[in-house]
Amino acid sequence: MTTESATDVDSGSSVERALATALTPRRERTRERLLDAAFAVFADHGIRGASIEAVCEAAGFTRGAFYSNFSSKEELFLALAERAMRRQLASLESVGKEVEPDLIRGGVVDYEAIRTILSVVVTDPGDARQWALMRAELELLAMRDPAIGRPFLAQEERLRAELGAAIRRILDSCGLRFTVEERTAVDLLLSIYESSARAAVAANPTSEDGDAAPDTAVLTELVNLLVTTAD
Predict the structure, then answer these.
(1) Are strands 108-109 and 176-178 parallel, antiparallel or unpaired?
(2) Domain HTH tetR-type spans what residues (predicted)?
(3) Residues in Cβ contact with 13 at an 8 Å cutoff, skipping those fewer than 6 apart
(4) Average confidence (pLDDT) per 10 residues, the chain, 231 residues
């Protein structure tokens, strides 16, 4: 098993600061391995059922490595959720740069092209079931415990704002706009997405992961109502 010290380097001297800087890439690799391990462990046992020891064992680290990066399982899950959203945002930004600017043809919006864009932000079907279950569990914990609820809501607020800005940039580049206020549109899109994911899991509780993937057709129908030409 790989070991890593739980003691953070004190930043008092220039030598210590330099050492802390040198360790940053290593800490980042440790953090990523813990996140990868946590996804698998949480998916199998849930947030409450999973132990920190199990996550550390799966990652090949000691508890010291865990606590040098995260203060709790809940903080670890929030970091895992943020990483997933960051990756989706990066994918959205990437596909946005490749979108043809003529999504409007003869005054009609090409919604199939928009559906292609939306499919980028839909969780990988192989992960859909796990994410739906884990997110539902985290939301329940957040509603019961303010210590979890406050950071959860703060993260949601920040990421939804960034998602709205990313979608707006794509719409602007194509001569399109939301028919409602941006945040309202984002909330509606995410609500439908999350509801569709939960319904897919409930309808097929023992099926393979791919069966839990939300249907982008539902999102496309909503886009028909939320997106129009800029003029």
Answers:
(1) unpaired
(2) 28-88
(3) none
(4) 41 44 73 92 85 94 92 88 84 74 61 66 64 85 89 90 87 85 91 83 65 65 83 71
Tokens of 171: 């719409």
Residue 158: inside a domain, yes or no?
yes
Q: Are residues 78 and 40 in the same domain?
A: no
How far is Cα of residue 84 from the mean position of the Cα atoms in its chain?
3
50 and 41 Cβ atoms separated by less than 8 Å: yes
Residue 220, domain extent:
73-229
4 located within any domain: no
Query: Are 80 and 59 in the same domain?
Result: no
> Distance of CA 201 to CAs 42, 135, 168, 196, 197, Å?
16, 12, 31, 9, 6
Burial class (CB in 10 A: 0-12, 13-18, 19+), 138: buried
Q: Are 23 and 9 in contact (CB under 8 A)?
A: yes
Q: Are residues 33 and 124 in the same domain?
A: no
From CA 51, how far away is CA 37, in angstroms rounded?
Answer: 12
Residues 103 and 136 in one domain: yes
**219, part of any domain:** yes
The reply to whether 7 falls in a domain is no
How many angstroms separate the Cα of 136 from the Cα of each of 30, 51, 130? 27, 19, 10
Q: pTM score, two decimals?
A: 0.72
